[in-house]
Amino acid sequence: MTCDLRPYPAYKDSGVPWLGEVPEHWEVKRNKLFLHEVNDPSVDGVEELLTVSQYTGVTRRRERLSDEGQLLTNAASLAGYKRVQPGDLVMNIMLAWNGSLGVSAIEGIASPAYCVFRVKSGVEPQFLHYLLRTPLFTGAFKTVSTGVVDSRLRLYPDVFFRLPSLLPSVPEQSAIVRFLDHADRRIRRYIRAKQKLIKLLEEQKQAIIHRAVTRGLDPNVRLKPSGVEWLGEVPEHWEVMRVSRFARVGNGSTPSRGKPAYWHGGAYPWLNSSNVNRGFIDSADQFVTQTALQECHLPRVAAGSVLVAITGQGKTRGASAVLGVEATINQHIAYITPRNAAVSSGFLHLALVAAYQTLRALSEDSGSTKGALTCEDLKRFKIPIPPALEQTALVERILTETGALVTAIAHAQGQIDLLREYRTRLIADVVTGKLDVREAAERLPDEEESEGLEEGEGLVEGDESIGDGDVDAAPEEAEA
Q: pTM for the complete prediction?
């Protein structure tokens, strides 16, 4: 796709250290010269609700409960939300530094916590969408944002207006947009194909685990009714127990980010629910202090416990992982710590993996607009318990039979990650003038309009982090 692309014939010093050299005929203009802020509040809030994300840009907020028509928002009324017109730049000023901004292709309303900017004539809005979301520009946003910690950094409009942007001529902006839209469509198709493969492999893996966890290793074993819908019949020598009979269950909290004494110099691992997707957790990337452990009553969760994500709109809710190190957790995770060796953490984890869809359904029956499991749900949840030696054999058999599938899934996911990295780098090189795409854009065939996001390319799977950029619709961390 880029093999025939070359740099521009001549460059000049932009006069901005972090921009470096730019194509000789491009302009460097402050944002205030071609953008102005608009604040047009909705009267009744009946317009389409929009959200902005570092992953998806500006999109309709379509997360809804199964069989429910409620929008995913905590606001009692959407009156006063800001009107957005197609071509407007929408920015979450708290998360501009991580790319939570974008140009809207649709009309709607956005959170009052956002800023809405309208593009003046002489600028192609989609060019700005690509430009301002590059790592070069989000890095500049972070440098000039105000705040103590990343989660509280704010890029105020007056500061944003003073920043420079790169502007080729309008025809060249249009050529760049045409080229990048074409490249983006192709990359999305590749990613979608890989994701379909991963889905098939995951289904096969899930079937193997479910069969082993509910029927055991002996195909001729006598069965008995379990009395549990998701289990059906189980080997007659197995027990079926509530989790509370053999394990302790609890969850954690998030120490206030505004108190450095809870985080600065911390050495005790603190986990959020995104870690649960790893399957086995042997490290952390966030740490709290002893002061936080004591004052916020954080649990010290023993190694060998199983963690379960109890909230989340993506695939995370209901997922589980074995904890390989002692750690503490936030309020979006529950821990299950077996009281003795009668139930191994490895088997418990695989039993919960087999019950994943049941846990998801249980969370959606709670009546919450967001869907959530509770510690009480997990305490009451019933799983099969084979004898200890049989648990060990089952875990070993499952790991053996699913090993090739796990490898294939990891390989496909690695290819997706490389495609995404390639897309990010290509966009950055083109919109900052490292590569000249004018001739390449002229040779492109007419194509269908940009397709929707591929499955799994939307909001990050996760928990309390407001990574989807909607500070009203996404719950902030409940601080202890």
A: 0.81
